[in-house]
Design brief:
single chain; alpha+beta; paralog of FGE (formylglycine-generating enzyme); 6-stranded antiparallel beta sheet; 4-stranded mixed beta sheet; 12 strands; about 20% helix; binds calcium ion
Length: about 325
């Protein structure tokens, strides 16, 4: 099961400048559109911390994977999805700095900080938790706080709390993407297994995944299917935006850390994109990971989307 794989892999290894706005600090609007090719949006979190978002156009795509795709799972049945409204998506994962702004202003404590263990939710629902008294890692840990690092060790519930705070602050509708919105944005018009083509070997320079350096660092020998046949320079998470952007101007849609999505069944939520510890099959555009809404680990983060407002024509010329 993919739920188990995410944990076992993490355990296995053991291991753009923004456009300058003229307004002085403290007098900026909370959110504004800026001019740019295709339209962009900046959200101001305070303390000169901002989130830059790309405009994702409306359109139509085939979600899922063909039956002959290597690594395919049964939950990837192909079907046409129409994206009726454009939306904005953060160009990168939410960073430690951005999440820290939220925590600083609210005193929020993540699920991992509060419970220090994963809790079995219901009898028969399965459950993921470390051995008794094992400390759950926190987003605050030094190992996860390098410059421009994606925030990790955040649960789906933590990500939703961030979105709620940012929605209230900016008076914009900030949410997690649905899996449909995520896959549409990931593909950016491509129809292949990976954004760079059909074969995993073509991904060098595109993503931080389980690569040769990951294999060398692993505590146990890995089969060839467990890593990419290239070296991306990072054993663990990489600073956001370190690799090529896709056709919509989004970075790290594949690799680095998993991204929580909205929706799901019961308390199970979607995780997309794979991570620095993920094998090729989990880094495909159609691959669907999942886990409990209060689960977190060092391979999981998120990015946000913002709804288009009435009157925003998407040309990037409107402003709040
Ligand atoms: Ca890597």
């Amino acid at each position: 099961m993919r739920i188990m794989f995410i944990v076992s892999t993490a355990v296995l290894i053991g291991i753009a400048a923004l456009s300058v706005l003229a307004e002085a600090k403290g007098h900026r609007p909370a959110a504004r559109s800026i001019r740019g090719q295709g339209g962009e949006l900046l959200l101001n979190l305070g303390d000169n911390v901002e989130i830059e978002l790309a405009r994702i156009p409306s359109g139509e795509f085939i979600m899922g994977s063909p039956q002959n795709e290597t690594g395919r799972e049964s939950d990837e049945k192909q079907h046409i999805v129409k994206i009726v409204k454009p939306y904005y998506m953060s160009k990168t994962h939410i960073t430690v700095e951005q999440f820290g702004e939220f925590v600083q202003r609210t005193g929020y404590r993540t699920d991992a900080e509060r419970v220090h263990k994963w809790v079995r939710l219901e009898v028969g629902e399965g459950g993921l938790y470390p051995p008794n008294n094992t400390r759950v890692e926190s987003w605050r840990d030094d190992a996860h706080r390098q410059v421009n690092a994606p925030v990790v060790c955040v649960s789906w519930q933590d990500a939703k709390a961030f979105c709620k705070w940012l929605s209230d602050k900016t008076e914009r509708e900030v949410t997690l993407p649905s899996e449909e919105q995520w896959e549409y944005a990931c593909r950016a018009g491509t129809t292949t297994a990976y954004p760079w083509g059909e074969h995993p070997d073509g991904g060098k320079g595109w993503a931080n995944c389980a690569d040769k350096s990951f294999k060398r660092a692993a505590a146990k020998p890995l089969p060839d299917s467990a890593y990419f046949n290239w070296d991306d320079g990072f054993v663990h998470a990489s600073p956001v935006g370190s690799f090529k952007a896709n056709g919509f101007g989004l970075y790290d849609m594949i690799g680095n850390v998993f991204q929580w999505c909205d929706g799901g069944v019961g308390r199970i939520r979607g995780l997309r994109g794979g991570s620095w510890a993920s094998e090729p099959s989990l880094c495909r555009c159609a691959a669907r990971g999942k886990n409990f809404s209060n689960y977190s680990d060092k391979c999981i983060g998120f990015r946000v989307i913002v709804s288009i407002k009435e009157g925003e024509d998407g040309s990037g010329t409107s402003s709040d």
